[in-house]
Amino acid sequence: MIDKTLPSTVYRPVSAVQAKALRQAARSAKEEAIRLHEGAVEVLSPHVRMADWSKDDGYGVAVDVVRDGVSVQWWPAAVPESLALWEQGGIRQLCVALLAARFTVSEGDERTPHVVMLRI
Length: 120
Known about the structure:
Elements: H1 16-44, E1 60-66, E2 69-75, H2 83-87, H3 91-100, E3 117-119
Antiparallel strand pairs: 1-2, 2-3
C-alpha cells in the first residue's frame, strides 16, 4: 500500500552553469551570515554577558547562525532563573538598541512580540 499523505520529492538535473550559480549563492549566503555573526558579537560583547557554551553556568547572550540569518538569544544554561535577566532585566532591550544601530533587527511579530530570539 502506498501512503499518499506524504509529500513526494522530484529531483531534476541541473546544468553545470546552474549548479555553479547555486553553489555561489550558497557560499555568498554563508559568508553573509558569518559577517553578521561576527558583527553582532563585536557590537554586543563589550556590553552584555556572552554565553559560554563550555560552562554549565555559562548563561548569557548567544549569537548563532540560523538558516537565513543570525539569531541573538538568551541561553540560560543550567540557571533557568537567569532567563528573567533577558526580559525583565532589560538585556533584550539593550541588545535591540545596540544591534539596531548597525543591523535590521526583527523582534517577532504581533503574536509573539517578546520572543527569546532576535534575528538580524
